Amino acid sequence: MIQKLLKGFIAVGIAAMIFGQCISYSPFEITLEDHEKDLTQKNLNRLLDNPTGNSDTVTFAFIGDTQRFYDASTDFVNVLNKRSDIEFVIHSGDISDFGLDLEFSLMAEILGKLKVPYLTVIGNHDIIYNGRRIYEQMFGPMDYSFTYKGFRFVMLNTNGREFGFSGKVPDIPWLDEQLSDTSHYKNALVIQHVPPGNDDFDNTLETSYAQTLSKWGKTLLSMNGHNHDYSIGEPYNDGVTYLNSFSTSKKSYVVVKIWEGGFSHVVVDF
Amino acid sequence: MWRFQTFIYLLTFIFLFASNSFAQEEEKEETGPKKRKWFVPDHSKIHFAGGYGFLSVSAGKKILRKKRIELDITIGYLPKAIGGDDILTGGIKAQYIPWRIDWKNKPLQIEPLAVGLSIFQAWGTRFNRLNDRNLYSKGYYWWTSNRRFAPFIGQRIQRTYKNSSIKSIGVYYEIGTYDLYIYSWLPNQKTFPFHKLFNFSGGVQLSF
Known about the structure:
The structure holds two protein chains of two kinds.
Chain A: H1 2-20, H2 39-49, E1 58-63, H3 70-80, E2 88-91, H4 101-111, E3 118-120, H5 131-138, E4 144-148, E5 151-156, H6 172-180, E6 188-192, H7 206-215, E7 219-224, E8 231-233, E9 241-244, E10 252-259, E11 262-269
Parallel strand pairs in A: 1-2, 2-3, 5-6, 6-7, 7-9
Antiparallel strand pairs in A: 1-10, 4-5, 8-9, 10-11
Chain B: H1 2-20, E1 43-48, E2 55-63, E3 69-78, H2 80-83, E4 87-96, E5 101-103, E6 108-123, H3 125-128, E7 147-160, E8 168-176, H4 179-185, E9 199-207
Antiparallel strand pairs in B: 1-2, 1-9, 2-3, 3-4, 4-6, 5-6, 6-7, 7-8, 8-9
């Protein structure tokens, strides 16, 4: 009888475990599976090995702040997968809301269903708790750049507050280096989470950031997230347009088309 | 999958340990019931997973309503090799056990349900940074505190010993979740996988 009882007890336990399916040591743990690692490099390989579309132009979708918006982000993926004119997706950061392992995994699973590659920058929410380490494992470096069809995309960590306004985030010398070899690219786009001038941007670096973008004369766009809403303007009157992405919860995204010396954009609701 | 195996090995070990090594204790001579000071714990646990790390230990007391409420102070550790980061976690755990059923003629007691709440926090700057008032005004992030709330339900079975300094040895498991998981799932019931809300953990309890 006791044995039966014990068996029953263990059976219920195992059933519960299968139901629960997972064991969690800590919400703050970092336990990514191999397919969840180095996503930036994997997406870049896909993009750069097989460029699509017209050779003179680049058309991409611009989103941001997916945070806890799993339903809306899934809707976005489904809608975008019906299009054939988008070459890749740029995510302006805040992939997660609390920087937790589970959140990154869930969002990477959703975004991984995109037919086209996607590239991200780190947002302030992605740095909470162990988020920074998770981002670096899952995606890769917080600052990186790539050249696609001759256009330079500079992906920059601008979450100054999260780094204690140390005067080192964003990394201006690094940014300058990415933009300085002007003979090797047609135009540049700088993508970051927190826009300059925002409370969360290190204000000691605002001027040098704007000057770095404009001084090489080839930066078309500075693209941001963080504000959860679309905006476009030229705040420093220096020829650089600043574009802010919708959060996916706003059920809209921006399509940007660039060519040498210019760009156009369209807002699309879903 | 290896987590599952770890758990099974641990459970087996605990069972063997529990059923054999303390069996002799039954023979001990009778000692009169002593009134304990309020702060002296009456039980201790070793717990696997469930928010406090790979392994955690706790000491606690059964109080109120025929000792149906169990309070524990728990401290646990997650090594980097297992969880990707060295994390030390401490917290308190409270649970209510509505029924204790004695198995007739056998020294067994079953607790078919436990409902509880764990409040824990992890130590380290990456967890405490949000509380830095120089950087974050109050409410900058609404969940600013690094204190997390983890509700759970569970079951337990105990082998009881009469006339022994060890009153019982029990094994139990819990199905738990975390506050931030629930908060994420609530507005996303279409796409947030429901089963990912829950985690399974368990341990052994020694009452004395």
